[in-house]
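Quarterly update from the structural biology core.
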Amino acid sequence: MKDDILARRYADAFFSYASQTCGEEKAVQDFTGVRALLLENRELILNFLDTPSITLLEKEAFIDKFFGEGFSGELRQFLRLLLKKDRIDKLWDIAEYIRVSYLYGQRTRALLKTSFPLELDLIQLIIERLEKKFQRRLKLYIELDGNLLGGVKVIMGNTVIDGSVRKRLEGLKKNLDAIRTN
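Predicted structure, tokenized:
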């Protein structure tokens, strides 16, 4: 679970950065190429890049050579970051996440939790506002959740927007508890 979240965070961060610099299409194309190379040489690439006896300089030279032609500078920079953060072992998971999340329709999945059924017009308005705020297209899933008591909660990757009545009541309770202790 923790590894999945970590891979998603790195993938979303890379995609967000790369889509502003080299473009969304190139970012997806880069990771499609990375995934293809890993399918053929996964053990070789990841073992080499994860071997402690090989210096960081040698690993960076390997990245420049192996991921040079046809790949963006943003990808090579991202791979160097994974090396420095000791996360290169997550490369396959990151490539898979990007393939699943961005390749097909380039829509980000979002979950809208609500305590009651919403009208179609309201759902469309929520989608439009979220797409404008996050500057990406969404594929929205809706789940009825009576525990919210009212309002809505949106979960998109690692981002949670909680506008539920339950959350507001919990905040009010904290404030009242803080007042009582003072």
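Residues 14 and 153 are 26 Å apart (CA to CA).
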